[in-house]
Amino acid sequence: MSTPPANFRVIIVGGGPIGLTAAHMLSKAGIDFILLERRGTVTPQDGTSLAIAPQTLRVLDQLDLLEPVRWIDHAIRKKNIVTHKGVLYNTTYPPIWAEEDHGRPYFMVHRPEFLETLYNHLSDADKGWIFTHKNVVDIESNPDGVIVKCDDGTEVDGHIVIGADGVHSRVRKEMRNLALLKNPRATVNDEQPLEASYRCLYATTDLMPGMVPGESWGAHGSGASTQVFVGRDRTWFFVYEQLDWPTRDWKKYSAKEEEEFVAKYGKLAMTERYRLKDLYAVKRNSTLVNLEEGTMKVFSFERLAIVGDAVNKQTPNVGNGYNSGVQDLVVLTTGLRKLLDSREVGEIATENVQEVLQEYQALRERDAKDICGKSGQATRMQAWNTWGLWLFERYIMPWGNMDRRVFSKMAGDIIRKGRVLPFLEEKDLRHGKVPWVHFPTVGPTKVETSSVS
Fold first, then answer.
1. pLDDT for 73-129, tens place per residue?
2. C-alpha torsion 167→168→171→177, nearest 10
3. Positive or negative, the Cα torsion across 94, 97, 98, 104?
4. CB neighbours of 232 closer than 8 A, spacing ≥ 6?
5. Which of 88, 131, 249, 326 is deepest in the core (most CB within 10 A)?
6. ∠ CA(373), CA(192), CA(147), 5° rounding?
7. Is residue 135, in this structure, part of any structural domain at all?
8. Which residues constitute the domain of residue 135?
9. Which helix (H) or strand (E) holds 20?
10. How far apart are CA 157 and CA 152, in angstroms?
């Protein structure tokens, strides 16, 4: 792994959903990669649900992943909204609205099953370039490429690093270090660039009597909110609480602190019938975390770039995280493929790579900030952060089809502008009432409007 590569090589740091999706995308683009994952596996069994939006389903179609992912979709189509005491006051249908507007609904998958699907549908050759137990501790950038160093002594040579290593990104830290080493006055991301105003308990449990697969629930109220997604064979639940004050410090909660959190909100409604204490008593797993928010000022340095949560972290209430990261990858992969089509590997200088990475930030920064802002707005609206949000969410939205219009405004614009890989055909392109903005340059761009997911 320490031999300088003859072909252009991308080093992916992080083997989560975004890292594995990057592997698929680069493979389809004909670009060599090595993926380094800190943990002992890229298919861990922890984690909860993950939402896949219509624009992302278009990209998965291009990657030949749509049908495999369809098999693990839990088909959540309806949301019931209750007060903290469990009084039902609204029912909404965002996945159905998405299908009406854009030709596809949202998919809801179990994160471990999704990781297994992504990994299992890589070729054997591609799987051979995935390495676990590789904890990155240092990155060198030079005129010809990069060297990534791991704590076990491994050194990996490549031409560019893509940091898909999450909210506490090592690649982001190395970008900052390298930039300041070169120029102490350089514009860099803050050492602690993200701020948390909320924390969240998320967990998975078995189906409970009376729960209907395909439904979701949300309890909205002052200072806290909940989400429950009822899948085929399991239920995922989330409890959000506003912190006393925002913090940039990373916090790892103890088991005792989690128990205290549950005791505080034990009687909080999760559905009309169940309270938090009921679901928590039969949980399979759970985690209490702070919810960082923010978009980086700097997306790249020289031959290093960050994607997904490493560059743009949102609160999870509306499920934008993975979908935003896929858009990062689409822009980056498209730029790298154009670069490789225009130059031989030996002719590619750091300046050429920087042009691609600067275009990546130019194309993604505005949308990333917009997504982060809308996600945070949803979190605050569900927790009635102000009296105006309480009035709007509790009394105005349930009347006059207002929630349908809010969905189209907050989510519809993000969905319709979703980018796709220009060099790969969509095998099953769908259209709804709202036209798509971007299409591949190969294959059909128009089909009959369809409501079949």
1. 999 999 999 999 999 999 999 999 999 999 999 999 999 999 999 999 999 999 999
2. 130
3. positive
4. 74, 75, 213
5. 326
6. 105
7. yes
8. 9-74+111-192+295-381+410-416
9. helix 17-28
10. 15
Mean pLDDT of the chain: 95
**Residue 144: inside a domain:** yes
* Structure tokens given for 206: 């078995």
Q: Which of 27, 11, 24 is nearest to 119 (CA)?
A: 24
Residue 27 CB coordination number (10 Å): 17
Output helix, strand, coil percentages for the chain, rounded to the nearest 5. 35, 25, 40
CA distance 313 to 231: 26
Q: What is the CATH classification number for the domain harbouring 320?
A: 3.50.50.60
Residue with tokens 């759970």: 286
Number of domains in the chain: 1
Q: Which amino acid is residue 323, in one-letter code?
A: N
Nearest to 418 by CA among 405, 404, 432: 432
Specify whether the CB–CB gap between 86 and 219 falls below 8 A. yes
Query: Would you give the end-to-end CA distance of the chain in angstroms?
Result: 43
In a domain, 130, yes or no: yes
Helix (H, G, I), strand (E, B) or coil at 296: coil
Residue 219 C-alpha from the chain's centroid: 23
d(CA 192, CA 195): 8
Assess contact for 422 and 428: CB atoms under 8 A: no
Q: What amino acid occupies position 80?
A: N
The answer to which of 213-227, 315-329, 344-358, 434-448 has the lowest mean pLDDT is 434-448
Per-residue pLDDT reduced to its tens digit, 141-194: 999 999 999 999 999 999 999 999 999 999 999 999 999 999 999 999 999 999
Distance CA 424, CA 443 (A): 8
